Amino acid sequence: MSFETADEEIERLEAERHSYSETFKNTDPADAVTRAHLQEEMNRRTNRIQELQQHQPLGFFARWGLRAAALAAVWGAFEYGPWWVKVGLGLLAAFLAFYSLG
Questions:
Q1: Average pLDDT rounded to a whole number, residues 33-37
Q2: DSSP codes joined into one string, 66-79
Q3: Both 50 and 78 in a single domain?
Q4: What is the pLDDT of residues 47-85, one digit of tens each?
Q5: Given a cut of 60, is residue 1 above it in pLDDT?
Q6: Is the pTM of this model over 0.85?
Q7: What's the superkingdom here (predicted)?
Q8: Phi, psi (deg, nearest 5) at residue 31
Q9: What is the spatial distance between Cα 100 and Cα 70, in angstroms, rounded to a whole number?
Q10: Are 10 and 47 found together in one domain?
Q11: In terms of residue numbers, what domain contains 80?
């Protein structure tokens, strides 16, 4: 199973929307059902494109805040005794570090 990046998905959706638009132009105006279906499909793709474009990655301070929290979790994992605390803080540190990179 392959996954698309947001840019790849936007590009694919724009191509699909263009295809529906061309079909819409060539559809008889009297065929209201087909035109309504094509318009609905174009609108769905337009809405998804707008949704993807509004997604903002983490800012500079948010990334560094997550990195600092990951370092604090690592420090806590070495400082506190019970094994379950070490495991929990280690997993938290890995989670925070992963999301600070994106």
A1: 95
A2: HHHHHHHHHHHHHH
A3: no
A4: 999 988 887 677 788 888 888 999 898 898 888 878 888
A5: no
A6: no
A7: Bacteria
A8: -90, 80
A9: 9
A10: yes
A11: 60-101
